[in-house]
Design brief:
Layout: E1 3-7, H1 16-24, E2 33-37, E3 52-54, H2 57-66, E4 73-74, H3 79-82, H4 88-97, H5 99-108, H6 114-123, E5 127-132, H7 136-149, E6 153-157, H8 170-189, E7 192-195, H9 198-208, E8 213-214, E9 233-238, H10 245-254, E10 260-266, H11 273-282, E11 285-288, H12 292-300, E12 304-308, H13 313-318, H14 326-332, E13 337-341, H15 346-353, E14 358-361, H16 366-377, H17 380-397, H18 400-413
Parallel strand pairs: 1-2, 1-5, 2-3, 5-6, 6-7, 7-8, 9-10, 9-12, 10-11, 12-13, 13-14
Antiparallel strand pairs: 3-4
Helix pairs in contact: 10-11, 14-17
Length: 415
Amino acid sequence: MRILVISHNCFSKVYNNGKTLESLFYCQPKEDLSQLFFHPDSYPDFDFCDNLWQITENDLIKSVLTRSDHVGHCINKSPQNAKMGYPKIFIWLKKLCGNVLRELLWSSCCWESPALWTWLNNFRPQLVFYVGGPVQFSADIALEISSRFHIPLAVYYTDDYLFSIDTSSHKGRRKYQQIKKLYSMVLEHSSAQFAIGDMMALEYENYFNKPFIPILNSIKIRPYVEYIDNPSISIAYFGGLHLARWNMIVRLAKLLDNKAKIVVYTDRSNIKDEIQSAFEKVGVACHDLLSGSCLIDAMNKSDMLLHVESNDVINRRFTRLAISTKIPEYLISGRPILGFGPVEVASMKLLSENDIGYIVNSEDSDAEIRNNILTIINDYSRRKELGLKGYYYAVRRFDVEIVSKKLLQELSSII
């Protein structure tokens, strides 16, 4: 079964979307896997997949300026091919126009180069696995390739870009209708549909009247490491600071009263001066993003693992249905998870409803939040219990071999 994955982000051992994709296709033979992706600022994981084609806005602009029909390129391991950012003028225009400029560029330029079709013909895909989102051009490409090769299309939604839209304004209602039309177009031609959590799968299934299978990020199962009662508590956060999550970390740090320290592991190249300054004021230590054994060691040495979701209306609407990629990774560490944010969003509900995390409601007063956090900080037995429950939950639900084989069986059934 030869699978072509079409996504904005490439396979990765470090970044969330790429890690999720690697977990999904963990059991897929490398020679039967290829990827077409569009993000210009990427480091592909060549150990996982080395048959990659990249098309970026840079390529489209270059083809227009040089009047070339060669758009995009096959990625190899040379450093100059591995990471390319957006042109500065494109970033500036994008801030002014949003996705309108991006869609206009893709619709007015021809992404269909002879070299791309040669690459695809050499691979001879039997199925397109499309990571869907709110962008028209990538959907058009996935549908065109599926149609051209007469092969089935499977779609996977990792974030909710539809129900998260505020429809109280004319602009919001128009955006909602555009995304709804886009999703409906893709789902009309899809033979299998997946979503990143139970809540999203259920709502999408009821809304679009098509079956959706929940499938989350999964992890390699490893032995439980004994949880030690340390006199000083370290609370570690791993991952991105987008969606205003950094604000929640700062707020939490202010309420700890030196009873614990927060350590953040993230991509420091994306940290703005404002965030760095806010972290320093509240004593939050910031380190580089980790992967592999270094990530595992850092989690094992932490007393609690922190997951936050923003309290503001826009971001809590966006995170309501999506399960964070880091949750399974946290759980398999056997360390207790401290969740801080709105209790109704999917990640928090997963932790609270299965009693595998200690949730602190960000809607509570500062005094209530402080007392709730101190309660769990001072209760080693409860922290150890939560960590063990989380570990065994991950073993049952997030074993990468089981999850990947299940997905591949589903995909095989539609070929």
